[in-house]
Amino acid sequence: MKRNPNNLPTAFTSVEELEEFLSRPREDVMEALRQLSGDLLILGVGGKMGPTLAMLAQRCVTDAGLKNKVIGVDLFPDRQVEGRLQKAGVQTLHCDVTDPKALEELPDVDNLIFMVGMKFGTTGKEPATWAINSFVPGLVARRFAGTRTVVFSSGNVYPMVPVLSGGCLERTPPAPLGEYAQSVLGRERNFAYFANQSKSPVLFFRLNYSVEMRYGVLWDIAQKVWNDQPVNVSMGHANVLWQGDANAYALRCLALAESPPRILNVTGPETLCVRQVAHLFGTRMKRDVLIEGEEQSTALLSNAQEAFRLLGYPTMPASRVIQWLASWVSAGGESLGKPTKFQVRDGKF
After folding, report:
1. Rounded Cα distance, 157 and 103, in Å
2. Between β-strands 210-211 and 241-242, what pairing exists: parallel, antiparallel or unpaired?
3. Global confidence as pTM
4. What is the DSSP string of 202-249?
5. How far separated are the first and last CA of the chain, in Å rounded?
6. Class assignment of domain 10-215+240-270+300-315?
7. Is 282 left (phi over 0), alpha (psi -120 to 50) or beta?
8. Does pLDDT of 344 surpass 90?
């Protein structure tokens, strides 16, 4: 891993380097975990963010000299992911979260991060989308009644707002467009119902959007530019957040969970112009940039000023991530193969 004078990488050359950096222990996370008692269970740990979030938690627990267990739960269709987690010291368990009996067999814990969700390819699979995004959360919330919980949600529950508005605040009324976004709001409503019954402390982590080298809004744009494909700018603006910061925020949010549930928007401070980002990639990759569509006056944007007040500003600006991604994509770096479809304006993912 090459480094610049500020001791930040100038580029990543392997998944191992990337995951080591994303999971590098942070004092703010260690301090938050010191304040919590009991073990941490991460449901849906095998997805895009789960592995490095669990690794970060485990490394912080180890460095802080804590005894808390970090337990990652998933079906683990990719056994390599499970292997990397186990190597990092995370205990792994297999569980079909749609099965109430299987959920009952999971260990009781004091702290839970819920990351189970379905977005990609949801059009045409609406029943499965609602089952995973709404039914399962109800099962989990009932099973873990009383447990301090951070529930991964999405800024998709908000309406599109004028680009110059600064984005939706937590008090903005939900207006989800399409069945994916509606089912995510269903996730929150199910958790809220059972949390209110049991007085469980819960926080809804409305993330919009996490980015790293293998997926995300910036990866989507970089791939288009590198492959000489047109970049659609009809969703002309977006918010993004470096996954390392998103991981740290999620773990620190355990201490912010409340009853009734608290809502927190989580994203970066910049409102990025998609056209400008495409041209930045074009310059770095020495590629001509093809643009299709026209910018609309509204976009799906979130305002995370409350998160910054409670947790501080992100450590990584989008400009640095763009630099890293240009090198990663140009070098043929690995991809998760999961485009965000952030440009979609009709809610059909």
Report:
1. 27
2. parallel
3. 0.95
4. EEEEEE--EE-SSSSHHHHHHHHHHTT-PEE-SS-EE--EEHHHHHHH
5. 36
6. alpha beta
7. alpha
8. no
